[in-house]
Design goal:
199 residues, mainly alpha, elongated
Length: 199
């Protein structure tokens, strides 16, 4: 749900215009914490790679200066460092690829209505059990989710119309004995943050 849609949803549920920005900022700040944590990990890896690259460059410079010294020993040392650097670089690239694919997969699962993408990824056996194209976009997701939707429908968000229909059939009122959706939780949190009593 983008910011404009959420703004309209909050306005339609009684959040005052002058409090909307503060409530929206609070909601989006919470969602940004996980992204910031992963970004910090990536920055740390980039720094490690930069240091490793500086070490390789230093060794290569030493080899050029040490013509009269043990050239073979220095070359061997440089080769070992280069192999380590290449290995670390490959591992970091793979880690970055996993993070990118993980974010893409979680976003796609949320779009498909999965309540807890991390749990579904775990149940499937990890990010590696999903297929991705050359641009790291997840493919074949509908086929995978079909079985989960049939066997474990509680893992998926219920559409608002379905909730209203089931509430009308059961004779209950929405928000008073009926089912609660993620939208209801967001609205109630926003109302509480704006000082509006929830029903």
């Amino acid at each position: 749900m983008n910011k404009d849609n959420l703004r309209e949803l909050l306005k339609s549920n009684g959040v005052a215009e002058d409090k909307l920005n503060g409530v929206l900022d609070t909601i989006f700040a919470e969602n940004g914490k996980d992204i910031q944590a992963e970004k910090s990990k990536l920055e740390a890896k980039v720094e490690e790679l930069t240091k490793a690259n500086e070490t390789i460059e230093g060794l290569q410079a030493t080899i050029k200066k040490a013509e009269a010294e043990d050239i073979e020993g220095l070359k061997k040392s440089a080769r070992e460092w280069e192999e380590k650097y290449n290995s670390d670089l490959e591992a970091s690239k793979n880690q970055l690829l996993q993070v990118q694919r993980s974010y893409e997969l979680k976003d796609s699962l949320k779009t498909k209505g999965v309540k807890d993408p991390d749990y579904l990824i775990f149940k499937q056996g990890g990010v590696d059990k999903f297929a991705f194209d050359d641009n790291n976009k997840v493919i074949g997701l509908d086929d995978i989710l079909k079985g989960y939707q049939e066997n474990t429908p509680h893992l998926f968000e219920t559409k608002k119309e379905d909730i209203e229909n089931s509430t009308m059939k059961s004779g209950g009122e929405h928000g008073n004995g009926g089912s609660s959706t993620a939208e209801d939780k967001i609205i109630n949190s926003a109302k509480a943050a704006a000082g509006i009593a929830t029903e």
